[in-house]
Structures are given as structure tokens and as C-alpha cells.
Amino acid sequence: MRHPLPLMLLFASVLMNAPALAETFITPSPELLALVKKATADNSSFKDKYDAQVWLMSMSNRLVAIISDPHKRLALLEQIHTEATRAGVSPQLVLSIIQVESNFDRFAVSHAGAQGLMQIMPFWLKLSGQPNGNLFHESTNLRLGCTILKYYLERSHGDIREALQRYNGATVGIDYSDSVLKALTRTWSWN
After folding, report:
1. What is the mean pLDDT of the chain?
2. Measured between alpha carbons, how far is 124 from 86 in angstroms, rounded to an integer?
């Protein structure tokens, strides 16, 4: 039996060099790239204004401790709902991802270099045809993040845990998916 230490050292090296490696080795499928490009050209909004108002007010009450300004809070929630609905993913799942990834800090940057609310890697801008785009711009970040999440949900045949692990870039363990699902259950579930 081989000793696991060399493999652990390789894994640690990969993690430490994640931003550079992501730019070099991650090649999204043509299908995902096409979806991201299409998403940047699409613009949708709520279909039913009454349901939107009920949803916005309910979610706004849950977010008040993080974003105190009601206008900013509602504007962000409307963007989240719009982009999630456009991509065909649950707005509550997106809220949960944002809570875990950035805690609603649009200027968040991870140790790996992921940026913004949904922690998108910068190479996605180039691949989506927006090399001068800004991942700290909420609508850009949400559009890309929701599109990528939808792709992983489809690739995982609806297995949310697997899709979340893929979204996070992890192929082992369940810590990330557990964190997102706890946020969904405890804070963002919608009945």
C-alpha cells in the first residue's frame, strides 16, 4: 500500500496554486460556455408582481441583519430572484450559496481568487465573452453564478449535493454542500 503523504502534498500544492491552475487547466464544456454566453444576453424579471412582492418582503426580513438599507436589500433580492428564475434555479438556493460563499459581501474575494456574491472565478469573464466585465457588479456575478449552478444541477441529474460540490470546485467531501443546505433549511426555505 502506498503512503498517502505524496498525494496529500500534491493536493495541498494544487490548493495553494488554485487561481493560477484554474486559469490554466479548467476547460468548461462547450455546452456550459454557450449557456454562460447566452445568459449574458438574456434579461428577465418577475412574472407575477403580487408573488414577487410577497417573496421580496419575506426574504427582505431575513436579510435585514446583514443589509440594513431596505432599498439596497430589495434591489439585491430582486436581482437574485430575476437571475435565478431566468436560469431555472431556486432563488432560495442562490441565497443560501451567497450566504455561505460571501455572506452578501459583493466585494468578497476568496483565497483562490473567486470574486463577488457567488464567488465566481475571473476566467469566466473571458470565457463568456466579457473580458472587461466586473465580477463585483452584482448582476454580472449573479448571472454567471446562476447559469453555472444550473449547468451543474443538470449535469448532476438534480442531485443538489453533487451539483453544489461541483459549483464549489470540490469533488470529495460534503462540507460545502452541507453548509449551503443548512443555510437553505434554517434561513431561506420558502413554503
Report:
1. 81
2. 19
Q: Is residue 3 part of a domain?
A: no
Residue at 109 is within a domain:
yes
- Whether residue 26 lies inside any domain: the answer is no
pLDDT > 70? residue 9? no
Cα 106 to Cα 136: distance, rounded to the nearest angstrom: 6
Residue 114 lies in a domain: yes
Q: What is the pLDDT of residue 38?
A: 59
Mean pLDDT of 62-85: 91
- Give the range of the structural domain holding residue 52, as residue numbers without chain letter: 42-188
| Separation of alpha carbons 24 and 141, rounded Å | 21
Overall average pLDDT of the 15-23 stretch: 41
pTM of the model: 0.77
- The count of domains in the chain is 1
- CATH number assigned to the domain comprising residue 184: 1.10.530.10
Spatial distance between the Cα atoms of 139 and 156, rounded to a whole number of angstroms: 25
Instruction: Assign residue 110 a region (left: φ > 0; alpha: ψ between -120 and 50; beta: otherwise).
Output: beta
Q: Shortest CA distance to 28 belongs to which of 124, 118, 163?
A: 124
Q: Contact 23/123 with Cβ under 8 angstroms?
A: yes
Cα–Cα distance, 63 to 94 (Å, whole number): 13
CA–CA distances in Å: residue 170 to residues 15, 99, 161: 11, 18, 11
> What's residue 165's pLDDT?
93
